[in-house]
């Protein structure tokens, strides 16, 4: 990712990347609303190798998704926000913009 962006722009970019490339594909792959830290790390490592990037970007992106409430954490288990479950059940595309909009509709 480009480092000359401002702090908030790069945080958003990290979130978008992690959601689109790691978290949502992982959710669809395992067909479950929750995933373990190990599952995330395995998927992260695979994507980082494919895209030739360091693990710093996805690590910051995951933390940022937690902050935004798109993902929740209990112990070593992460789960998607309950409003995103219908997308998973339908195996629908759920991009970052959709995810953040759903989570903010309270």
Could you estimate the helical fraction of the residues in percent? 55-70%
Shape: globular
What gyration radius follows from the Cα positions, in whole Å? 13 Å
Query: Going across the major beta sheet, what is the strand order?
Result: 1-3-2
Give the number of helices.
Answer: 5
Provide the residue-averaged pLDDT: 91
**Count of strand segments:** 3
Q: Report the end-to-end length measured between terminal Cα atoms.
A: 32 Å
Give the biggest beta sheet.
Answer: 3 strands, antiparallel
The parts where pLDDT drops under 50 for at least 5 residues are none
Strand content: 5-15%
**SS-based structural class?**
mainly alpha
Order of SSEs: HEHHEEHH
How would you characterize this protein structure?
The protein is mainly α. It is built from five helices and three strands, in the order αβααββαα. The chain has a three-stranded antiparallel beta sheet with strand order 1-3-2. α1 (7-30) crosses α2 and α1 (7-30) packs across α3. The radius of gyration is 13 Å and the shape is globular. It starts with 6 loop residues before the first helix and ends with a helix. The relative contact order is 0.16.
């Amino acid at each position: 990712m480009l480092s000359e962006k401002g702090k908030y722009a790069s945080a958003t970019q990290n979130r978008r990347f992690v959601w689109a490339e790691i978290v949502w594909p992982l959710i669809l792959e395992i067909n479950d609303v929750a995933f373990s830290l190990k599952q995330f790390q395995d998927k992260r490592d695979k994507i980082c190798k494919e895209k030739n990037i360091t693990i710093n970007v996805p690590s910051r992106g995951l933390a940022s998704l937690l902050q935004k409430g798109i993902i929740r954490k209990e112990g070593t288990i992460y789960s998607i926000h309950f409003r995103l479950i219908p997308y998973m059940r339908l195996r629908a595309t759920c991009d970052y913009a959709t995810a953040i909009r759903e989570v903010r509709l309270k």
